[in-house]
Amino acid sequence: MQKKIAILVRDRQGEAMRMGVGLILADDLVNVFIMDRELEKTDDNLLNLETMGDMDVKTYTNFKGNENIE
Tell me, what's the pLDDT at 2? Predict the structure, then answer.
């Protein structure tokens, strides 16, 4: 049975984004929510965001400064 997993990204963004990519391997439904601030534009975060996009992981945000994220 497929689980539904929500990753809430706030303070330790790099670690949360890495967890989002890692949980894809379990074949569960993963959604990532970037909350209250802009996603740091580090190489690791951008690579993880691209990987999640390629694997059909939905990414959402409530911060208007995050481009290309719902």
Answer: 87
The two beta strands, 29-34 and 4-9, are: parallel
Of the candidates 31, 29, 33, the one whose C-alpha atom is nearest the C-alpha of residue 10 is: 33
Residue-wise pLDDT tens digits, 2-52: 899 999 999 999 999 999 999 988 888 999 999 999 999 999 999 999 999
Helices 13-24, 43-54: axis angle to 10 degrees equals: 30
Inter-CA distances, 63 with 2, 5, 23, 30, Å: 29, 21, 24, 20
Other Cβ atoms within 10 Å of 30 Cβ, number: 23
| CB-based contact 3:28 (threshold 8 Å) | yes
